[in-house]
From TrEMBL:
Gene source species: Elysia crispata (lettuce slug)
Chain spans, region Disordered: 114-155
PROSITE patterns: RT_POL
Basic residues: bias regions: 137-146
PANTHER family: REVERSE TRANSCRIPTASES (PTHR19446)
This protein's name: Reverse transcriptase domain-containing protein
Pfam families given in the database record: RVT_1 (PF00078)
Superkingdom of this protein's organism: Eukaryota
UniProt xrefs under SUPFAM superfamilies: DNA/RNA polymerases
Lineage, highest ranks first: Eukaryota, Metazoa, Spiralia, Lophotrochozoa, Mollusca
Entries under InterPro entries matching the protein: DNA/RNA_pol_sf, RT_dom
Length: 521
Protein backbone atom coordinates (compact mmCIF):
# COMPACT_ATOMS: atom_id res chain seq x y z
CA UNK A 1 0.00 0.00 0.00
CA UNK A 2 1.32 3.40 -0.91
CA UNK A 3 0.76 6.47 1.18
CA UNK A 4 1.75 10.10 0.57
CA UNK A 5 3.09 10.48 4.11
CA UNK A 6 5.14 7.37 3.75
CA UNK A 7 3.03 4.51 5.19
CA UNK A 8 2.66 1.17 3.43
CA UNK A 9 -0.21 -1.22 4.06
CA UNK A 10 -1.10 -4.16 1.86
CA UNK A 11 -4.86 -4.79 1.76
CA UNK A 12 -7.50 -5.91 -0.73
CA UNK A 13 -10.30 -3.46 -1.50
CA UNK A 14 -12.50 -4.59 -4.36
CA UNK A 15 -16.24 -5.10 -4.83
CA UNK A 16 -17.29 -3.33 -1.61
CA UNK A 17 -20.31 -1.07 -1.38
CA UNK A 18 -19.98 2.42 0.09
CA UNK A 19 -21.52 1.25 3.36
CA UNK A 20 -19.21 -1.78 3.59
CA UNK A 21 -16.19 0.36 2.79
CA UNK A 22 -17.04 2.67 5.69
CA UNK A 23 -17.42 -0.33 7.99
CA UNK A 24 -14.14 -1.80 6.73
CA UNK A 25 -12.34 1.46 7.36
CA UNK A 26 -13.72 1.58 10.88
CA UNK A 27 -12.73 -2.04 11.53
CA UNK A 28 -9.24 -1.44 10.18
CA UNK A 29 -8.60 1.36 12.61
CA UNK A 30 -8.69 4.27 10.15
CA UNK A 31 -12.26 5.37 10.78
CA UNK A 32 -12.32 9.16 10.46
CA UNK A 33 -14.02 11.01 13.30
CA UNK A 34 -17.20 12.86 12.38
CA UNK A 35 -16.10 15.91 14.37
CA UNK A 36 -15.52 19.08 12.38
CA UNK A 37 -11.85 19.35 11.43
CA UNK A 38 -10.68 22.97 11.58
CA UNK A 39 -7.68 24.45 9.81
CA UNK A 40 -4.31 23.88 11.44
CA UNK A 41 -3.60 26.50 14.09
CA UNK A 42 -0.43 27.17 16.04
CA UNK A 43 1.27 24.47 13.95
CA UNK A 44 -0.83 21.66 15.44
CA UNK A 45 -3.77 19.66 14.16
CA UNK A 46 -6.86 18.14 15.74
CA UNK A 47 -7.17 14.38 16.11
CA UNK A 48 -8.24 12.75 12.88
CA UNK A 49 -8.71 9.20 14.14
CA UNK A 50 -11.52 7.91 16.28
CA UNK A 51 -10.60 7.09 19.86
CA UNK A 52 -11.31 3.41 19.24
CA UNK A 53 -8.49 2.91 16.65
CA UNK A 54 -7.59 -0.73 16.99
CA UNK A 55 -4.32 -1.93 18.50
CA UNK A 56 -3.61 -4.27 15.64
CA UNK A 57 -3.35 -1.40 13.17
CA UNK A 58 -0.98 0.52 15.46
CA UNK A 59 1.20 -2.56 15.75
CA UNK A 60 1.20 -2.90 11.98
CA UNK A 61 2.29 0.72 11.56
CA UNK A 62 5.20 0.17 13.97
CA UNK A 63 6.22 -3.21 12.60
CA UNK A 64 9.02 -3.76 10.15
CA UNK A 65 7.51 -3.50 6.66
CA UNK A 66 7.84 -5.87 3.76
CA UNK A 67 9.27 -4.65 0.50
CA UNK A 68 6.61 -3.74 -2.04
CA UNK A 69 6.76 -5.64 -5.28
CA UNK A 70 6.88 -2.61 -7.57
CA UNK A 71 7.20 -3.21 -11.32
CA UNK A 72 10.62 -2.88 -12.97
CA UNK A 73 11.77 0.68 -13.63
CA UNK A 74 11.58 0.04 -17.40
CA UNK A 75 7.91 -1.13 -17.30
CA UNK A 76 6.51 2.19 -18.52
CA UNK A 77 2.92 1.01 -19.12
CA UNK A 78 2.60 -0.54 -15.66
CA UNK A 79 3.88 2.64 -13.99
CA UNK A 80 1.44 4.78 -16.00
CA UNK A 81 -1.43 2.53 -14.92
CA UNK A 82 -0.28 2.70 -11.30
CA UNK A 83 0.02 6.48 -11.52
CA UNK A 84 -3.58 6.81 -12.74
CA UNK A 85 -4.94 4.40 -10.15
CA UNK A 86 -3.15 6.09 -7.28
CA UNK A 87 -4.40 9.53 -8.29
CA UNK A 88 -8.02 8.34 -8.24
CA UNK A 89 -7.63 6.79 -4.80
CA UNK A 90 -5.70 9.75 -3.42
CA UNK A 91 -8.39 12.17 -4.59
CA UNK A 92 -11.10 10.08 -2.91
CA UNK A 93 -9.32 9.62 0.40
CA UNK A 94 -7.48 12.86 1.04
CA UNK A 95 -9.06 15.39 -1.28
CA UNK A 96 -10.88 17.33 1.45
CA UNK A 97 -9.13 16.18 4.61
CA UNK A 98 -6.91 18.12 7.00
CA UNK A 99 -3.19 18.58 6.44
CA UNK A 100 -2.35 16.14 9.25
CA UNK A 101 -4.44 13.44 7.58
CA UNK A 102 -2.83 14.16 4.21
CA UNK A 103 0.59 13.68 5.75
CA UNK A 104 -0.23 10.38 7.44
CA UNK A 105 -3.20 8.77 5.66
CA UNK A 106 -2.96 5.55 3.70
CA UNK A 107 -4.28 4.45 0.33
CA UNK A 108 -5.29 0.81 -0.09
CA UNK A 109 -3.55 -0.83 -3.03
CA UNK A 110 -3.63 -4.48 -4.00
CA UNK A 111 -2.11 -4.20 -7.45
CA UNK A 112 1.35 -5.58 -6.74
CA UNK A 113 1.37 -6.97 -3.20
CA UNK A 114 4.50 -7.81 -1.24
CA UNK A 115 7.75 -8.44 -3.02
CA UNK A 116 8.76 -12.09 -3.06
CA UNK A 117 12.34 -13.23 -3.06
CA UNK A 118 13.24 -14.50 -6.52
CA UNK A 119 16.36 -15.98 -7.97
CA UNK A 120 18.30 -13.32 -9.84
CA UNK A 121 19.79 -13.90 -13.24
CA UNK A 122 23.54 -13.81 -13.23
CA UNK A 123 24.65 -10.54 -14.88
CA UNK A 124 27.68 -10.32 -17.09
CA UNK A 125 30.73 -9.76 -14.92
CA UNK A 126 32.95 -6.74 -15.34
CA UNK A 127 36.73 -6.88 -15.13
CA UNK A 128 36.65 -5.66 -11.54
CA UNK A 129 34.11 -8.33 -10.60
CA UNK A 130 36.24 -11.02 -12.19
CA UNK A 131 39.27 -9.86 -10.22
CA UNK A 132 37.22 -9.85 -7.02
CA UNK A 133 36.06 -13.38 -7.78
CA UNK A 134 39.69 -14.46 -8.12
CA UNK A 135 40.49 -12.90 -4.75
CA UNK A 136 37.54 -14.69 -3.15
CA UNK A 137 38.79 -18.01 -4.51
CA UNK A 138 42.20 -17.29 -3.04
CA UNK A 139 40.56 -16.47 0.27
CA UNK A 140 38.62 -19.75 0.13
CA UNK A 141 41.83 -21.65 -0.50
CA UNK A 142 43.36 -19.99 2.56
CA UNK A 143 40.47 -21.29 4.65
CA UNK A 144 41.13 -24.81 3.37
CA UNK A 145 44.81 -24.45 4.19
CA UNK A 146 43.86 -23.20 7.63
CA UNK A 147 41.87 -26.35 8.34
CA UNK A 148 44.66 -28.67 7.23
CA UNK A 149 47.53 -26.64 8.74
CA UNK A 150 49.41 -27.58 11.89
CA UNK A 151 49.17 -25.43 15.01
CA UNK A 152 52.50 -23.81 14.19
CA UNK A 153 51.36 -22.94 10.66
CA UNK A 154 47.98 -21.52 11.72
CA UNK A 155 49.62 -18.42 13.13
CA UNK A 156 50.56 -17.43 9.57
CA UNK A 157 47.01 -17.68 8.27
CA UNK A 158 44.34 -15.21 9.38
CA UNK A 159 40.74 -15.64 8.36
CA UNK A 160 38.76 -12.57 7.39
CA UNK A 161 35.20 -12.39 8.67
CA UNK A 162 32.46 -9.86 8.19
CA UNK A 163 31.71 -7.79 11.25
CA UNK A 164 28.78 -8.95 13.36
CA UNK A 165 27.57 -7.02 16.38
CA UNK A 166 27.86 -9.24 19.43
CA UNK A 167 25.63 -7.22 21.82
CA UNK A 168 22.37 -8.52 23.24
CA UNK A 169 19.21 -6.47 22.65
CA UNK A 170 19.14 -5.10 26.21
CA UNK A 171 22.80 -4.09 25.99
CA UNK A 172 22.32 -2.31 22.66
CA UNK A 173 19.25 -0.46 23.93
CA UNK A 174 21.18 0.65 27.02
CA UNK A 175 24.00 1.87 24.76
CA UNK A 176 21.55 3.77 22.55
CA UNK A 177 19.91 5.47 25.53
CA UNK A 178 23.32 6.48 26.85
CA UNK A 179 24.54 7.70 23.45
CA UNK A 180 21.47 9.63 22.33
CA UNK A 181 20.24 11.02 25.66
CA UNK A 182 21.16 14.56 26.66
CA UNK A 183 20.17 15.84 30.14
CA UNK A 184 21.27 19.33 29.04
CA UNK A 185 19.16 19.36 25.88
CA UNK A 186 16.91 22.19 27.07
CA UNK A 187 19.75 24.29 28.51
CA UNK A 188 20.80 26.99 26.01
CA UNK A 189 24.48 27.45 25.27
CA UNK A 190 26.15 30.56 26.65
CA UNK A 191 27.98 32.92 24.31
CA UNK A 192 31.73 32.80 25.00
CA UNK A 193 34.06 35.68 24.30
CA UNK A 194 35.33 35.72 20.75
CA UNK A 195 32.19 34.34 19.13
CA UNK A 196 31.91 35.93 15.67
CA UNK A 197 28.38 37.00 14.74
CA UNK A 198 28.07 37.38 10.95
CA UNK A 199 26.62 40.52 9.39
CA UNK A 200 23.06 40.62 8.09
CA UNK A 201 22.64 38.70 4.81
CA UNK A 202 22.84 40.46 1.48
CA UNK A 203 20.80 37.66 -0.12
CA UNK A 204 17.67 36.67 1.80
CA UNK A 205 16.74 33.04 2.45
CA UNK A 206 14.10 31.70 0.06
CA UNK A 207 11.21 30.96 2.44
CA UNK A 208 8.61 30.25 -0.24
CA UNK A 209 6.99 26.79 -0.27
CA UNK A 210 8.87 24.23 -2.41
CA UNK A 211 8.21 24.43 -6.13
CA UNK A 212 7.42 21.39 -8.25
CA UNK A 213 10.67 22.02 -10.15
CA UNK A 214 12.72 21.78 -6.93
CA UNK A 215 10.98 18.62 -5.78
CA UNK A 216 11.30 17.00 -9.19
CA UNK A 217 15.03 17.87 -9.25
CA UNK A 218 15.52 16.10 -5.90
CA UNK A 219 13.61 13.01 -7.04
CA UNK A 220 15.40 12.74 -10.39
CA UNK A 221 18.81 13.15 -8.75
CA UNK A 222 18.14 10.41 -6.18
CA UNK A 223 19.19 6.85 -6.94
CA UNK A 224 16.27 4.69 -8.03
CA UNK A 225 17.65 1.78 -5.98
CA UNK A 226 18.14 3.88 -2.85
CA UNK A 227 17.00 1.89 0.20
CA UNK A 228 13.53 3.07 1.34
CA UNK A 229 12.69 4.02 4.90
CA UNK A 230 10.24 2.35 7.32
CA UNK A 231 7.34 2.81 4.88
CA UNK A 232 8.97 0.80 2.10
CA UNK A 233 8.14 3.46 -0.52
CA UNK A 234 11.22 4.16 -2.73
CA UNK A 235 12.15 7.16 -4.85
CA UNK A 236 11.30 5.01 -7.86
CA UNK A 237 7.56 5.46 -7.25
CA UNK A 238 7.85 9.23 -7.61
CA UNK A 239 10.26 8.92 -10.53
CA UNK A 240 7.77 6.82 -12.51
CA UNK A 241 4.47 8.36 -11.33
CA UNK A 242 4.54 12.10 -12.17
CA UNK A 243 0.92 12.68 -11.16
CA UNK A 244 1.54 11.18 -7.73
CA UNK A 245 4.59 13.45 -7.46
CA UNK A 246 2.36 16.44 -8.19
CA UNK A 247 0.03 15.40 -5.35
CA UNK A 248 3.03 15.00 -3.07
CA UNK A 249 4.15 18.49 -4.10
CA UNK A 250 0.83 19.97 -2.96
CA UNK A 251 1.08 18.17 0.38
CA UNK A 252 4.67 19.31 0.93
CA UNK A 253 3.67 22.89 0.13
CA UNK A 254 0.95 22.65 2.77
CA UNK A 255 3.41 21.26 5.30
CA UNK A 256 5.89 24.09 4.59
CA UNK A 257 3.20 26.80 4.77
CA UNK A 258 1.79 25.48 8.06
CA UNK A 259 5.22 24.62 9.53
CA UNK A 260 4.04 21.04 9.95
CA UNK A 261 6.52 18.15 10.19
CA UNK A 262 4.92 14.72 9.84
CA UNK A 263 5.65 12.10 12.47
CA UNK A 264 6.39 9.73 9.59
CA UNK A 265 9.40 11.88 8.68
CA UNK A 266 10.77 11.72 12.22
CA UNK A 267 11.00 7.92 12.33
CA UNK A 268 14.09 6.05 11.19
CA UNK A 269 15.22 2.44 10.93
CA UNK A 270 18.93 2.12 11.66
CA UNK A 271 21.58 -0.49 10.93
CA UNK A 272 25.21 -0.80 11.99
CA UNK A 273 27.91 -1.00 9.31
CA UNK A 274 31.33 -2.45 10.32
CA UNK A 275 34.23 -0.01 10.02
CA UNK A 276 37.03 -2.58 10.11
CA UNK A 277 37.74 -6.30 9.76
CA UNK A 278 36.42 -8.68 12.40
CA UNK A 279 34.20 -5.98 13.93
CA UNK A 280 32.27 -7.20 16.97
CA UNK A 281 32.23 -4.31 19.47
CA UNK A 282 29.84 -1.37 19.14
CA UNK A 283 32.68 1.16 18.70
CA UNK A 284 33.78 -0.74 15.57
CA UNK A 285 30.48 -0.02 13.79
CA UNK A 286 29.01 3.05 12.12
CA UNK A 287 25.25 3.70 12.43
CA UNK A 288 23.28 4.43 9.25
CA UNK A 289 19.62 5.52 9.32
CA UNK A 290 16.94 4.85 6.70
CA UNK A 291 14.20 7.48 6.55
CA UNK A 292 11.00 7.80 4.55
CA UNK A 293 11.66 9.39 1.17
CA UNK A 294 8.85 11.97 1.48
CA UNK A 295 10.61 13.61 4.41
CA UNK A 296 13.98 13.32 2.67
CA UNK A 297 12.56 15.13 -0.36
CA UNK A 298 11.14 17.89 1.87
CA UNK A 299 14.40 18.43 3.74
CA UNK A 300 16.51 18.10 0.58
CA UNK A 301 14.82 21.22 -0.76
CA UNK A 302 15.44 22.98 2.55
CA UNK A 303 19.08 21.85 2.60
CA UNK A 304 19.66 23.04 -0.98
CA UNK A 305 18.24 26.46 -0.18
CA UNK A 306 20.20 26.69 3.06
CA UNK A 307 23.46 25.80 1.29
CA UNK A 308 22.82 28.40 -1.40
CA UNK A 309 21.98 31.01 1.25
CA UNK A 310 25.16 30.33 3.26
CA UNK A 311 27.51 30.33 0.27
CA UNK A 312 26.01 33.37 -1.48
CA UNK A 313 26.36 35.42 1.71
CA UNK A 314 29.90 34.20 2.38
CA UNK A 315 28.92 32.65 5.72
CA UNK A 316 30.98 29.53 4.96
CA UNK A 317 34.63 30.05 4.09
CA UNK A 318 35.16 27.34 1.47
CA UNK A 319 38.94 27.82 1.63
CA UNK A 320 38.72 26.44 5.19
CA UNK A 321 35.60 24.23 5.35
CA UNK A 322 35.06 22.06 2.27
CA UNK A 323 32.74 19.42 3.69
CA UNK A 324 29.04 19.35 2.83
CA UNK A 325 29.38 21.85 -0.04
CA UNK A 326 28.16 20.49 -3.43
CA UNK A 327 30.69 20.60 -6.25
CA UNK A 328 33.70 21.01 -3.95
CA UNK A 329 36.24 18.18 -3.98
CA UNK A 330 37.43 19.20 -0.54
CA UNK A 331 39.07 16.05 0.79
CA UNK A 332 41.49 15.73 -2.13
CA UNK A 333 42.15 19.47 -2.26
CA UNK A 334 42.93 19.74 1.46
CA UNK A 335 45.21 16.70 1.38
CA UNK A 336 47.09 18.11 -1.61
CA UNK A 337 47.54 21.54 -0.02
CA UNK A 338 48.73 20.13 3.31
CA UNK A 339 51.18 17.84 1.52
CA UNK A 340 52.47 20.81 -0.49
CA UNK A 341 52.87 22.86 2.72
CA UNK A 342 54.98 20.12 4.32
CA UNK A 343 57.16 19.75 1.21
CA UNK A 344 57.71 23.52 0.98
CA UNK A 345 58.65 23.70 4.67
CA UNK A 346 61.25 20.97 4.11
CA UNK A 347 62.67 22.44 0.90
CA UNK A 348 62.72 26.04 2.22
CA UNK A 349 64.08 24.91 5.62
CA UNK A 350 61.14 26.45 7.51
CA UNK A 351 59.29 25.66 10.72
CA UNK A 352 55.83 24.12 10.46
CA UNK A 353 53.39 22.36 12.79
CA UNK A 354 50.54 20.27 11.37
CA UNK A 355 47.98 18.76 13.74
CA UNK A 356 45.16 16.49 12.59
CA UNK A 357 42.30 16.53 15.12
CA UNK A 358 39.51 14.00 15.39
CA UNK A 359 36.26 14.52 17.28
CA UNK A 360 34.84 11.71 19.39
CA UNK A 361 31.50 10.61 17.89
CA UNK A 362 31.26 13.90 16.02
CA UNK A 363 27.88 13.48 14.32
CA UNK A 364 26.31 11.79 17.32
CA UNK A 365 27.44 14.33 19.92
CA UNK A 366 26.69 17.76 18.45
CA UNK A 367 24.03 19.31 20.75
CA UNK A 368 20.75 20.45 19.22
CA UNK A 369 21.22 23.72 21.11
CA UNK A 370 24.40 24.24 19.06
CA UNK A 371 22.43 23.78 15.84
CA UNK A 372 19.78 26.27 16.98
CA UNK A 373 22.47 28.79 17.96
CA UNK A 374 24.11 28.46 14.53
CA UNK A 375 20.75 29.02 12.81
CA UNK A 376 20.23 32.22 14.82
CA UNK A 377 23.79 33.45 14.25
CA UNK A 378 23.47 33.05 10.48
CA UNK A 379 20.11 34.86 10.39
CA UNK A 380 18.11 31.86 9.16
CA UNK A 381 14.36 32.75 9.15
CA UNK A 382 12.44 31.85 12.29
CA UNK A 383 9.98 29.63 10.40
CA UNK A 384 12.85 27.37 9.32
CA UNK A 385 14.16 27.32 12.89
CA UNK A 386 10.72 26.25 14.16
CA UNK A 387 10.43 23.38 11.67
CA UNK A 388 13.94 22.11 12.43
CA UNK A 389 13.36 22.34 16.18
CA UNK A 390 10.14 20.31 15.83
CA UNK A 391 11.95 17.80 13.61
CA UNK A 392 14.78 17.07 16.04
CA UNK A 393 12.53 17.26 19.12
CA UNK A 394 10.32 14.44 17.87
CA UNK A 395 12.91 12.30 16.09
CA UNK A 396 12.87 8.61 17.02
CA UNK A 397 14.86 5.71 15.66
CA UNK A 398 15.34 2.00 16.18
CA UNK A 399 18.15 -0.30 15.12
CA UNK A 400 18.07 -3.77 13.63
CA UNK A 401 20.64 -6.56 13.73
CA UNK A 402 20.53 -10.05 12.26
CA UNK A 403 18.51 -11.33 15.22
CA UNK A 404 16.44 -8.49 16.71
CA UNK A 405 15.12 -4.92 16.43
CA UNK A 406 15.39 -2.48 19.33
CA UNK A 407 12.58 -0.34 20.70
CA UNK A 408 12.33 3.26 19.51
CA UNK A 409 14.86 5.69 20.99
CA UNK A 410 14.48 9.48 21.15
CA UNK A 411 17.27 11.39 19.44
CA UNK A 412 18.09 14.03 22.06
CA UNK A 413 21.60 14.79 20.78
CA UNK A 414 23.47 14.55 17.50
CA UNK A 415 22.38 14.11 13.91
CA UNK A 416 21.64 10.99 11.88
CA UNK A 417 23.57 9.66 8.91
CA UNK A 418 20.99 9.43 6.14
CA UNK A 419 19.11 12.63 7.00
CA UNK A 420 19.31 15.08 4.08
CA UNK A 421 19.34 18.28 6.16
CA UNK A 422 21.83 17.13 8.81
CA UNK A 423 25.15 17.55 6.88
CA UNK A 424 24.71 21.28 6.19
CA UNK A 425 23.51 21.85 9.78
CA UNK A 426 26.65 20.14 11.06
CA UNK A 427 28.80 22.31 8.77
CA UNK A 428 27.08 25.42 10.18
CA UNK A 429 27.80 24.33 13.75
CA UNK A 430 31.45 23.63 12.90
CA UNK A 431 31.73 26.98 11.12
CA UNK A 432 30.76 28.79 14.34
CA UNK A 433 33.73 27.12 16.08
CA UNK A 434 36.18 27.65 13.21
CA UNK A 435 35.29 31.35 12.90
CA UNK A 436 35.82 31.85 16.63
CA UNK A 437 39.22 30.11 16.60
CA UNK A 438 40.78 31.39 13.37
CA UNK A 439 42.16 34.60 14.92
CA UNK A 440 44.26 32.61 17.41
CA UNK A 441 47.05 32.29 14.84
CA UNK A 442 48.20 34.03 11.70
CA UNK A 443 48.56 32.37 8.29
CA UNK A 444 51.33 29.78 8.03
CA UNK A 445 54.42 31.11 6.20
CA UNK A 446 55.43 28.70 3.43
CA UNK A 447 58.15 30.89 1.95
CA UNK A 448 58.31 32.82 -1.30
CA UNK A 449 55.43 35.05 -0.25
CA UNK A 450 53.10 32.02 0.02
CA UNK A 451 50.80 31.79 3.03
CA UNK A 452 48.13 29.31 4.11
CA UNK A 453 45.17 29.77 6.50
CA UNK A 454 45.88 28.19 9.91
CA UNK A 455 42.78 25.98 9.79
CA UNK A 456 41.53 23.38 7.32
CA UNK A 457 38.36 21.37 7.84
CA UNK A 458 36.35 18.69 6.10
CA UNK A 459 33.17 18.23 8.13
CA UNK A 460 34.50 17.32 11.62
CA UNK A 461 38.08 16.54 10.54
CA UNK A 462 40.05 19.65 11.50
CA UNK A 463 43.70 20.40 10.71
CA UNK A 464 45.86 23.10 12.32
CA UNK A 465 48.73 24.49 10.21
CA UNK A 466 51.05 26.99 11.93
CA UNK A 467 54.63 28.13 11.40
CA UNK A 468 55.15 29.25 15.02
CA UNK A 469 54.99 26.90 17.99
CA UNK A 470 53.38 29.45 20.34
CA UNK A 471 50.63 30.06 17.75
CA UNK A 472 50.11 26.32 17.40
CA UNK A 473 49.69 25.95 21.14
CA UNK A 474 47.37 28.96 21.36
CA UNK A 475 45.19 27.68 18.53
CA UNK A 476 45.01 24.22 20.06
CA UNK A 477 44.05 25.57 23.48
CA UNK A 478 41.39 27.87 22.00
CA UNK A 479 39.85 25.03 19.97
CA UNK A 480 39.82 22.82 23.05
CA UNK A 481 37.98 25.51 25.05
CA UNK A 482 35.44 25.98 22.25
CA UNK A 483 34.80 22.25 21.98
CA UNK A 484 34.23 22.01 25.73
CA UNK A 485 31.84 24.96 25.50
CA UNK A 486 29.68 23.24 22.87
CA UNK A 487 29.82 19.94 24.81
CA UNK A 488 31.89 17.86 22.40
CA UNK A 489 35.36 16.38 22.83
CA UNK A 490 38.48 15.69 20.83
CA UNK A 491 39.70 12.12 20.57
CA UNK A 492 43.47 12.18 21.37
CA UNK A 493 43.86 8.51 20.44
CA UNK A 494 43.01 9.24 16.80
CA UNK A 495 44.63 12.69 16.58
CA UNK A 496 48.10 13.10 15.07
CA UNK A 497 50.75 15.82 14.77
CA UNK A 498 53.82 16.52 12.64
CA UNK A 499 56.51 19.10 13.41
CA UNK A 500 59.10 20.41 10.96
CA UNK A 501 62.01 22.45 12.34
CA UNK A 502 64.35 24.16 9.88
CA UNK A 503 63.26 21.76 7.17
CA UNK A 504 63.68 18.55 9.16
CA UNK A 505 61.09 16.36 10.84
CA UNK A 506 61.25 17.02 14.58
CA UNK A 507 60.40 14.54 17.33
CA UNK A 508 58.29 17.16 19.12
CA UNK A 509 54.65 16.13 19.40
CA UNK A 510 52.03 18.70 20.35
CA UNK A 511 48.71 17.35 21.46
CA UNK A 512 45.80 17.83 23.87
CA UNK A 513 45.42 15.38 26.72
CA UNK A 514 42.13 14.05 28.11
CA UNK A 515 42.02 16.89 30.66
CA UNK A 516 42.09 19.50 27.92
CA UNK A 517 45.70 20.59 28.54
CA UNK A 518 48.17 21.20 25.70
CA UNK A 519 51.39 19.21 26.02
CA UNK A 520 54.75 19.08 24.27
CA UNK A 521 56.80 15.89 24.29
Amino acid sequence: MVIPGGIVRLTVDCGLTTKKKKEAKKDNGIYISSENQSQVQNHSAEKIYAEESDEEFRQLINAKRQKINFPPACAKEQWEALDSKLILQLDKLIGKSTLEYKLTTSVTLSTFGAKQHQAKREPKKSRRQREMETLRKQKKNLRKQMKSATEEEKNGLQELWRGSLSLQKEQLEAHLRKTYSDPNREIPLSEPAGLVWPAAPGEEFNSKPPSLKEINAVVQKARAKSAPGPSGVPYLLYKRCPNVLKRLHKILRGAWTNLKISEQWMSADGVYIPKEQNSTEINQFRPISLLNVEGKIFFSVMASRLTKYLTENGYINTSVQKGGIPGVSGCLEHATMIWEAIQRAKSEKLNLDVIWLDLANAYGSVPHQMIQLALRMYHVPEDIQVMLDDYFSGFRMRFSTNSYTTDGINLEIGITMGCTISPILFVMAMEVILKAAEDSAGPANLGGGCYMPPLKAFMDDTTIICSKEDETRRMLEHLDVLMAWCRVKFKPKKSRSLSVRKGKIDATTIYTDTNGQSRTS
